[in-house]
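Example 256, ligand adenosine-5'-diphosphate.
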Amino acid sequence: MKARLQSRAARRVQPDTRVLIPRKSPRRFYGQGIPGVELDKLIGKLIVVEGADGSGRSTQIKLLVDWLESAGHATVQVGLKRSTLVAEELERARQGNILSRTTLSLFYATDFADQLENIILLALRAGQMVLADRYIYTLMARDIVRGIDRKWLENLYGMALVPDAVFYLNVAPEELVQRTFAKYSALNYWESGMDLGLSRDMFDSFLQYQAMMVRTFKELQRTYGFHIIDGHRPVQEINAELRRKIEAVLAGHPLK
Ligand SMILES: Nc1ncnc2c1ncn2[C@@H]1O[C@H](COP(=O)(O)OP(=O)(O)O)[C@@H](O)[C@H]1O
Ligand SMILES: [Mg+2]
C-alpha cells in the first residue's frame, strides 16, 4: 500500500513552491444568468478548456488538476453530458437520432444548466477551482453549423457564467484524425458530423465537419475572446503555457 502511494505521488506533477490564493475578480453572466445567484459570493475560479475531439483537453486537464491540487486548491471537474439529470437520456436520444435539432439543442442546454446550478456555482461559492472540459462554445458551434440561429443560441446561453479564462486548443483536423485513430481505431459518428450528410465517407465528412467547426469557433472567438493555444506542441510545453496563464488568473491579472 505504501509503495503504491509513493509511486502515485512520484507520478504527480511537482508542486510549485508558491501557493496562490485566488484574488477576487468581477463576475457576470453572459445574459440574464440564473436568478437568485449572488455573484460576489462566487470566489473560486472557472477555467474552461475548449477544443475539438482529440485536441488534448483531457490530457491537459488531468495535468492541471494534479498541479492545482498539489498547490492546495480543491478542484472540481465538469464537462458536457455529465449531468445526473439528463446525461443518460441525452445519450439515448443521440443514439436513436430521434429529436429535432432544436429539441436536441435544448436537451444539451438542460444538461449544461443542471451542471451550472448544481456543480459549478456551488463549487465557486465554496472557493474551489472549477475545470470545465468544454463549455457553451462547443454547444453553440455544433448548433450553428447545423443551422440554428446564433442570436437564439446567445440568448439561450445567456444563463452561463463568464469564465475566468477560456483556452482553445487549436489542432489541425488532419492531426486530429491521426490522434483519434491512434486512440480509438475509429472515428466517432457525431464528431465526424455524419448527421449533416456532408459525405458518405466518414473520413471525408470528419475533415469537412471539423473545418466547419474551426471556422465557427473563429467567429465565436470575436465575441467571446478565447485564448488560442497551439495544441501541436508536446504535452508538457502546452501545459507550461496553461499553468503560466492560470497563475496570472489566480493573481487577478486579466489575460492578454
Ligand atoms: N500535445 C499532444 N501531442 C500529441 N498527442 C497528444 C497531445 N495531447 C494529447 N495527445 C494524444 O491525443 C489523444 C487525444 O487526447 P485527449 O486528451 O484524450 O483529447 P480530448 O480530450 O481533447 O479528446 C490521446 O491519445 C493523447 O495521448
Ligand atoms: Mg477527452
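Summary: The pocket of magnesium ion (ligand 2) is lined by residues 57-58 (CB under 6 Å).
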